Amino acid sequence: MALLRRVIPSLVSISTNNPTRITHVHRPQLTVGEAKSNSNISMLCESLRRGLNWDALNKRFGSLEFSESFVSRVLLELKKPVDAKRALGFFHWSAQCKNLEHGVAAYCITIHILVGARLLMDARSLLESTLKKNARSRFLVVDSLLSSYKITGSNPHVFDLLVQTYSKLRMFEIGFDVCCYLEEHGFSLSLISFNTLLHFVQKSDNYPLVWKIYEHMIRVRKYPNEVSVNVMISALCKEGALQKFVDMLDRIHEKRCSPVVIVNTCMIFRMLEEGRLEQGMLILKRLLQKNMILDTISYSLIAYAKVKYGTLDSAWEVYEEMLNRGFHPNAFVYTLFIGAHCAGGRIEEANKLMQDMENAGLMPYDETFNLLIAGCSKAGRLEEGLRFCERMMERGLVPSCWAFNLMIAGNLCESGVVKRANKMLTLLIDKGFVPDEITYSNLIASYGKLGEIQQVLKLYYEMEYRSLSPGLLVFESLIRGLCQCGELEKAEKCLRIMKDRSITISACVYETLINSYFEKGDESRASQLYNEMVSTGLKPSCACVFHP
């Protein structure tokens, strides 16, 4: 082959030094079959241009064998816009009258011709048909469209129509993959196509894909318009996340931001939450260049990234740069630093920042208090945690469930102030707080240790009244508390309720009952429960004092 490549040019070259030398270029002659095929194609196209109906076409060309190659050649002869309807007519005639199942190549050539003639409804119909037929082959249709793009003299709108059709067929994942594939091959979709894809994906509630598409738009510099932003705001509403980001921006900017700023802030925040710092910073820079996000918001988001993944010192440097450039401090950034100090057990520093925040005229919000309550609880500073909880309530706020549960777990209840915690829970419920199973489990366990059996049962019945179906965690605390109070019959009743409700019984539940019966001197019942536990596949631990 290498020799052939060297020889062929020398055979056809004409020496300019010898003008009298004549070179004859051999032109291969068509075979009889090829010449006949070309003649048939010409006759068929001429018949179509003369407007012959299907019956007439059948009479003249009924005996012809139609291969996929033959069909493609006929279509290409009819590729000019003036012949587009004839090409479509031939496509349908050859399928129906010749009982021919067209391949993807014939479909794509016809689609190109129709798009070139602006017969978009017909093109869309063929696209829907071939996409449904080839749904399992992700890139088959787009590859065929790309391969026939130049020979049909098509235009990029065909690829917009392709992705829009994927959208309307609810084939979102493939549609987006094709979109990225086209970018790799030098074709950029129109904003209308991106908006169509966004719209249908948002309607399907596939929120991760909505944000993925929107992020891709920014990356390829296809910047959103009002339609794009409205779709994204709708997605935020349906996700239940809009208020969260409106509140966040109110704390950063202290003024209501435009919808596009809300959407872009949400996108960057999500990227940082997912740990995609480098990509997030690249997109953030692009948004800043287009004035699609505010400087003060950008600084705050960078500070957030530094706190979450970097160091507190580097985050503080960003904050000081923000102040030096004339921007005001904000409650969001203060809360970031308070949370970082609480996580590190530096409660004094967190308290000082809280004071500085209030002195600056900034209002602490629910997340600020939750972080302080959790930090104080972990550090064993129970009174401070309670005071922060009370301050929240004075401002009309309620702590999050996880912060309150952390406060009443272990230390608070073990220190004998469970009644105070229970009273606080009653007040919080009146203000809209919704306790969960962990909340009740902690209180039941604490009252059980104090021997207050009536309070244990009262909390259990309160759960039932609130339609909070007790699970294993609550029953473990309940049975342990009843056993500690010597109420073995009531503990057995709870065991029966667990069985009736098909709640998995843990080794802890069995061992609590077994040990209690053994200590009471009822070895018979202890042995029964022991055998029952073993029969379920559970193994006794070292905490089990009875061994038959």
Question: Would you give an account of this structure?
Answer:
- The protein is elongated.
- Helix content is 70%, strand content 0%.
- It contains 31 helices and no strands.
Mean pLDDT: 87
Give the low-pLDDT segments: 1-34
Summed up, the helix count is: 31
Helix-strand makeup class: mainly alpha
Termini separation: 88 Å
Q: Please report the total strand number as a whole number.
A: 0
Largest sheet: none
Radius of gyration: 37 Å
Strand content: under 5%
* Shape verdict: elongated
* Percent helix: over 70%
How would the blueprint of this fold be written?
Layout: H1 2-12, H2 32-49, H3 54-61, H4 68-77, H5 84-96, H6 104-116, H7 120-133, H8 140-147, H9 157-168, H10 172-184, H11 191-203, H12 207-219, H13 226-239, H14 242-253, H15 259-273, H16 277-289, H17 295-309, H18 312-324, H19 331-343, H20 347-359, H21 366-378, H22 382-394, H23 401-408, H24 411-414, H25 418-430, H26 437-449, H27 453-465, H28 472-484, H29 488-500, H30 507-520, H31 523-535
What key phrases describe this protein's structure?
548 residues; mainly alpha; 0% strand; disordered N terminus
Give a brief rundown of this model.
The protein is mainly α and 548 residues long. The protein has 31 helices and no strands.
